[in-house]
């Protein structure tokens, strides 16, 4: 039996390759892209940009943040000045980039102080005797009952406005909320099955706390800390907008908001763009923190 000679057959008569067989790699890529959660990816890229601005601002900035040129004051955003210029002719984009360091340090410092106060308070409230636990609970609830802004304003009024005061004010104001979260995490861990198993095996109370309760209860703190940074930056910007934070000519984002409100109708970008940058950072930190928390809870 002879095989048909396909070398002389026209191309239209040759069997076509199956599209599914011809593009298995493309199908795998499409499946992978559909499985990617783009919100955490976008949040991570945004935080990477802000981290670069924190560590190497000169790599991203196009002008000096302090260079004054009144001839180019209040210029609208353009290719030469991406975010426009302020009332002194300073490049707003460069000032936002250089202001990242101060804004992020305030946010990280305030979040760190809040958790440093919240963890021992929440742990003692959850693990101590009934009288001490009730006393700490009432203290936390009393502080938590105060409006956070009012408490922060009280601290600033006592210590005076500065970056350090902002860290202290925001840290003290937000600590009670995080203490309640820590207390809830520890109480949930106390009633978990592995704790009951450890008790049945004869482990001591301190050994159970150190080896089982605290490690499992503290895992969500990574996500909580990430979200606390975004919240602290929003609070710090709010204090600066009220004139109770870092004073001009600092390029801290809240100070930029405060300086731009005098030109909100004449040059709205001076207020809108720093506010948008604060929103992007806070939203990115919250999205990434939620993503981390989801993975920790699922055990991934």
Automatic annotation (TrEMBL):
UniProt record, GO biological process: transmembrane transport
Protein name (database record): ABC transporter permease
Gene3D superfamilies: MetI-like (1.10.3720.10)
GO CC list: plasma membrane
Protein family according to the UniProt entry: Belongs to the binding-protein-dependent transport system permease family.
Domain (ABC transmembrane type-1): residue spans on this chain: 100-289
Membrane topology of this protein: Multi-pass membrane protein
Spans annotated as Disordered: 1-25
Main subcellular location of this protein, as a coarse class: membrane
TM ranges: 38-60, 104-127, 139-158, 221-247, 267-288
Compartment(s) where it occurs, according to its Swiss-Prot or TrEMBL record: Cell membrane
Biased composition (Polar residues): 1-10
Pfam annotation, one family: BPD_transp_1
SUPFAM superfamilies in the cross-refs: MetI-like (SSF161098)
Protein keywords: Cell membrane, Membrane, Transmembrane, Transmembrane helix, Transport
């Amino acid at each position: 039996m002879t095989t048909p000679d396909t070398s002389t057959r026209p191309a239209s008569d040759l069997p076509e390759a199956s599209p599914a067989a011809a593009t298995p790699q493309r199908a795998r890529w499409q499946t992978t892209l559909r499985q990617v959660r783009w919100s955490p990816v976008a949040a991570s890229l945004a935080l990477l940009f802000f981290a670069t601005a924190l560590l190497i601002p000169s790599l991203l900035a196009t002008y000096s943040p302090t260079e004054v040129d009144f001839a180019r004051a209040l210029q609208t955003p353009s290719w030469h000045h991406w975010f426009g210029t302020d009332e002194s002719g300073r490049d707003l984009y460069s000032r936002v980039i250089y202001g990242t360091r101060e804004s992020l340090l305030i946010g990280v410092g305030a979040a760190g102080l809040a958790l440093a106060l919240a963890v021992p308070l929440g742990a003692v409230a959850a693990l101590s005797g009934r009288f001490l636990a009730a006393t700490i609970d009432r203290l936390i609830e009393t502080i938590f009952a105060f409006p956070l802004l009012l408490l922060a304003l009280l601290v600033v009024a006592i210590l005076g406005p500065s970056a350090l005061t902002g860290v202290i004010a925001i840290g003290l104001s937000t600590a009670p909320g995080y203490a309640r979260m820590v207390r809830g995490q520890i109480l949930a861990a106390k009633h978990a099955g592995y704790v009951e198993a450890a008790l049945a095996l004869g482990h001591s109370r301190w050994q159970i706390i150190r080896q089982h309760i605290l490690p499992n209860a503290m895992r969500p703190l990574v996500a909580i800390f990430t979200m606390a940074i975004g919240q602290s930056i929003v609070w710090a910007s709010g204090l600066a907008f009220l004139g109770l934070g870092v004073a001009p000519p600092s390029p801290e984002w809240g100070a930029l908001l405060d300086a731009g409100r005098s030109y909100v109708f004449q040059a709205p970008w001076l207020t809108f763009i720093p506010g948008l940058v604060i929103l992007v950072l806070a939203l990115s930190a919250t999205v990434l923190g939620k993503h981390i928390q989801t993975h920790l809870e699922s055990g991934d």
